[in-house]
Amino acid sequence: MLWILIRHELRGMLRTWRAPVIAGVVLFLALIGPVTTKLMPQIISLAGGGLEILGGDPTWVDANAQWASDLSQVIPLLTVMVAAHSIAQPLSSGSAALLLARPVPRSALLLAPAVANAIVTGAAVMIGVLGNTVMTMILFGEGQTVQPIAMALRWLVLMAVLIAAAALGAALRGSMAGAAGVGLGVYFTLALLSAVPGVRDYSPAGLFSLEGGETWVWAGLTATPLIALIGLAAVRAFERLPLASSPHS
């Protein structure tokens, strides 16, 4: 039954604005990042004021750094907002209550849109990686394929934490505002903690270290039980959440 609901959610995302918006934004950032990095000296020159870029002309390393920045700053916010809408909208509109009239596990109503969002967002980011890598190699004449893919795979763990947090917010409040609030709250909390070395090195706050290394290994190890705990808390909270009745009932 869960897989049936996931497929239903995937079709819904593809037929509405959600999947196109996610794919469009991710692909735009993936392709425009190397372009702006390459043109940065000219952009600064046009700005005037005697500004100069320190360290010489930009390289493919700078393009990869820009992609890592987009992965850790822009795309997570989009992920939370779209996931919050997908998970909470059926709860507040009454369609979830209609589904419960059938033999559908209550937890599946919460997990299906969360999993569907993870699949769509993850696929969009992996396609974005390919586009970013190709564009970087075209503009700079060199680059890497392993490092961008590795960064994207690490980012998937951060995405899982944020979507789980959005599901918890939806389960607690039954609204998009609640889902987005908890998801964004977790994101900004981890972002702030990532600036504290002692905390970042041994906690999920290190998920922002997309370049990898020992810091990210500890972050990944501690994030896995965190995702499980948030998911369990979301399911438990959802069991007690009163669902809105359908306006057509």
Automatic annotation (TrEMBL):
GO molecular function list: ABC-type transporter activity
Source organism, top-level taxon: Bacteria
Keywords: Membrane, Transmembrane, Transmembrane helix
Pfam families to which the protein is assigned, alphabetical: ABC2_membrane_2 (PF12679)
GO cellular component, one term: plasma membrane
Record-annotated membrane-spanning stretches: 21-40, 74-101, 108-140, 152-172, 179-196, 216-238
UniProt-recorded name of the protein: ABC transporter permease
